[in-house]
């Protein structure tokens, strides 16, 4: 039988050396570190200010509304519904996504179609973005590749709870990130701010 | 010297030093944001613009002032409305008043009259500073007491404890300076720092009192109530003595902090870094230790000295910002231990050793 050793939290604490406990030397080291950052960054800012663009940036900041961080292609962003070549929604209203959704934010109303190879299609397809947790289970569950989360849209907001519910027309109209590029989406703003 | 001329000179000097303190204080609100940002690899506030012009966020000073003045001034239902309104005034008034004895230059001669560049050449200037620093605590304590709020009261009590602990060190370290320069007048202390020691080193207080300088800087930063000594404020635990203040009354407390910071920088400059003295600059011009001499006009010399004072004060403001954005804050017991068990004995030893050496050399 092995022995169980109980480690007291205070035992794990690193014992400070004499010079660390004096503190004055540590203060000096801390100040040296921060002032080095200060002068290096100031020098880089100055170089960039006088037009030397090859200088490394003085700050890690992205100037947000004008400059955006690069997104991973796998990033789960706002949903969109894909279309068939003839423009009708790919969705067959199988309710898989609605069933798997842990946040209960998808609401589908199905209707029949004459085409025997499709049988059903959504009459309405609403996603309540206000409840969505962006888990991506709906995309995983979809057997028809009808719903994707590749719009690259992360700025989602509305002035009311109702405004956060996106209907089928909006979801169908959203382009994927690869087509849209870095252009901001204005139509979404009009849709969401109600 | 005619009466009118004298009054004019005093008014002029007062306007200069007040404008210096207030404008540098306003600038420090911007420096605080920008310096911390540059130190932490950020950019800092840069969005305030006029007609698309941003000039590195300098308009944020104006934006802050506009915000402070236009916000609702909420007064709690306290029985001490007058004292509640008086506290921020006291805080900033005594901080500004102390600048009266700070010498920012030597002397200029206008129309045959010599004007000393110091608002009031009080011959007990150091005692005046002690008095003003002590009274300035009243602003904080009264704010805490009159707010009718437990957290504010705690903040006020903490401020009292901290000020009492650190003012002793503050005073005792200056005993060394007084012993060496044999005077209480600030202008004379600066004059006494004009010579050289060992033929090349400026005779500044920091070289004569290195330990005294460190202790004084620590105690003085503690007097400004900023991190790492922000026990009265304690943003992360109690909001402190100004929890019940809003609008420009709060702004005045904040501004008083910056003014005190400039005051500390001025005092460190005056006591330990030769005040307005420029190294090797005599009244006639530069005289270097290796024998070279450049003759300069009197006006150039005096202007250089005022500039030297401003540069030194700016440097120490920068240093205090650096300290404020580098060191973690002390806990209350650590603060008391540092004040009573470390700084006080060291400052006593410093005063004793200085006294013995001065006595020994003077014999």
Topology:
The complex is a heterodimer of chains A (194) and B (363).
Chain A: H1 9-12, H2 18-22, H3 24-49, E1 80-81, H4 96-100, E2 106-112, E3 120-128, H5 137-141, E4 147-148, E5 165-166, H6 168-173, H7 177-180, H8 186-192
Antiparallel strand pairs in A: 1-4, 2-3, 3-5
Chain B: H1 3-39, H2 60-70, H3 81-97, E1 107-110, E2 113-116, H4 125-146, H5 150-181, H6 186-192, E3 196-197, E4 201-202, H7 205-208, H8 210-223, H9 247-272, E5 281-282, E6 285-287, E7 293-295, H10 298-324, H11 332-362
Antiparallel strand pairs in B: 1-2, 3-4, 5-6, 6-7
Helix pairs in contact in B: 1-9, 1-10, 2-9, 3-4, 3-9, 4-5, 5-8, 5-11, 8-9, 8-11, 9-10
Describe the structure.
- The complex is a heterodimer of chains A (194) and B (363).
- By secondary structure, chain A is an alpha+beta fold.
- Chain A folds into two domains: 1-61, no CATH class; 80-192, Alpha-Beta Plaits (2-Layer Sandwich).
- Helices cover 32% and strands 11% of the residues of chain A.
- Chain A contains eight helices and five strands; from the N terminus they run αααβαββαββααα.
- Chain A has helices at 9-12, 18-22, 24-49, 96-100, 137-141, 168-173, 177-180, 186-192, and strands at residues 80-81, 106-112, 120-128, 147-148, 165-166.
- In chain A, the strands form two sheets. A three-stranded antiparallel sheet of chain A has the order 2-3-5.
- Chain B is mainly alpha-helical.
- Chain B has one domain.
- Chain B has helices spanning 3-39, 60-70, 81-97, 125-146, 150-181, 186-192, 205-208, 210-223, 247-272, 298-324, 332-362; strands at residues 107-110, 113-116, 196-197, 201-202, 281-282, 285-287, 293-295.
- In chain B, the strands form three sheets. In chain B, strands 5-6-7 form a three-stranded antiparallel sheet, with no helix packed on it. In chain B, strands 1-2 form a two-stranded antiparallel sheet.
- The longest helix of chain B is centred in the N-terminal third of the chain and has 37 residues, at 3-39.
- Chain B is globular and about 65 Å long.
- The relative contact order of chain B is 0.13.
- At the A-B interface, helix 3 of A face helix 1 of B.
């Amino acid at each position: 039988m092995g022995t169980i050793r109980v480690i007291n939290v205070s035992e794990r604490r690193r014992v400070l050396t004499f010079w660390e406990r004096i503190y004055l030397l540590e203060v000096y080291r801390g100040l040296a570190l921060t002032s080095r950052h200060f002068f290096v960054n100031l020098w880089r800012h100055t170089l960039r200010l006088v037009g030397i663009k090859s200088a490394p940036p003085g700050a890690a900041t992205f100037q947000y509304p004008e400059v955006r961080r690069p997104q991973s292609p796998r990033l789960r962003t706002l949903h969109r519904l894909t279309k068939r070549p003839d423009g009708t929604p790919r969705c067959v209203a199988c309710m898989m996504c609605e069933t798997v959704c842990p946040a209960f934010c998808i609401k589908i109303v199905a209707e029949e179609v004459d085409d025997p190879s499709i049988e059903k299609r959504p009459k309405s397809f609403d996603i309540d973005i206000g409840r969505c947790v962006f888990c991506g289970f709906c995309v995983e569950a979809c057997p028809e590749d009808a719903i994707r989360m590749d719009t690259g849209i992360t700025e989602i907001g509305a002035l009311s709870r109702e405004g956060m519910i996106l209907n089928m027309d909006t979801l169908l109209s959203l382009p994927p990130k690869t087509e849209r590029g870095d252009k901001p989406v204005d139509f979404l703003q009009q849709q969401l701010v109600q | 010297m005619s009466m009118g001329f004298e009054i004019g000179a005093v008014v002029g000097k007062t306007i200069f030093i007040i404008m210096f303190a207030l404008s540098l204080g306003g600038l420090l609100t911007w420096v605080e944001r920008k310096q911390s940002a540059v130190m932490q690899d950020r950019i800092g506030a840069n969005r305030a613009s006029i007609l698309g012009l941003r000039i590195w966020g300098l308009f944020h000073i104006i934006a802050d002032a506009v915000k402070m003045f236009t916000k609702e001034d909420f007064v709690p239902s306290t029985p001490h409305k007058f004292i509640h309104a008086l506290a921020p005034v006291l805080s900033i008034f005594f901080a500004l008043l102390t600048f009266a004895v700070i010498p920012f230059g030597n002397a200029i001669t206008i129309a045959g009259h010599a004007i000393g560049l110091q608002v009031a050449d009080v011959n007990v200037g150091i005692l005046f500073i002690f008095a003003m620093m002590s009274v300035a605590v009243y602003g904080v304590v009264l704010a805490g007491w009159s707010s009718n709020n437990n957290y504010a009261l705690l903040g006020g009590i903490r401020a009292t404890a901290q000020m009492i602990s650190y003012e002793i060190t503050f005073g005792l370290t200056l005993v060394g300076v007084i012993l060496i320069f044999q005077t209480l007048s600030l202008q004379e202390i600066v004059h006494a720092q004009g010579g050289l020691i060992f033929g090349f080193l400026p005779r500044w207080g920091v070289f004569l009192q290195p330990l005294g300088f460190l202790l004084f800087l620590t105690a003085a930063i503690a007097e400004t109530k900023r991190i790492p000594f922000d026990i009265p404020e304690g943003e992360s635990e109690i909001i402190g003595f100004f929890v019940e203040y809003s609008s420009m009354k709060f702004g005045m407390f904040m501004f008083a902090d910056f003014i005190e910071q400039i005051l500390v920088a001025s005092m460190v400059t005056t006591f330990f870094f030769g005040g307005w003295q420029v190294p090797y600059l005599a009244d006639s011009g530069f005289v270097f230790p290796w024998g070279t001499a450049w003759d300069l006009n009197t006006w150039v010399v005096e202007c250089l000295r005022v500039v030297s004072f401003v540069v030194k004060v700016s440097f120490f403001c920068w240093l205090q910002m650096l300290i404020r954005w580098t060191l973690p804050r002390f806990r209350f017991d650590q603060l008391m231990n540092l004040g009573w068990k470390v700084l006080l004995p060291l400052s006593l030893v410093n005063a004793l050793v200085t006294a013995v050496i001065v006595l020994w050399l003077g014999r």
